[in-house]
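Lecture 7 notes: from sequence to structure.
We start with the chain below.
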Amino acid sequence: IKINIIMRSLYQYIKRKTFALNKSGIKAFYAKYMIIIGTMGQVMHYIQAWKIFTTKSASDISLIAYIISFFLLLNWMIYGISISSKPLIYAEITGLVGALIVIVGVIIYS
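Predicted structure tokens for the same chain:
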């Protein structure tokens, strides 16, 4: 009976440890995945900037919209820093730089 109790306790211990490892492994993978996805989501700013600088025209771009976007991205980045979220920080820095490039392009070519 003692061996049975010891075996059952050992099995439960291993099961808990295995679950914890799997859970942390999934969390680590998802954090890296979200850095990539979050950063890719901010590529839209660079596409817009590319169009502005290659056509030398920003007539259809709203400066106010990009200033608002920049302000919102800045707030999300500050929040990401406050909660130490690398995916959020990287994505918002990428977005801030892209939005700033668009804003500069709109100012130059409007």
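Points to note: Helices lie at 2-41, 43-55, 63-82, 86-109. DSSP finds four helices and no strands in the chain.
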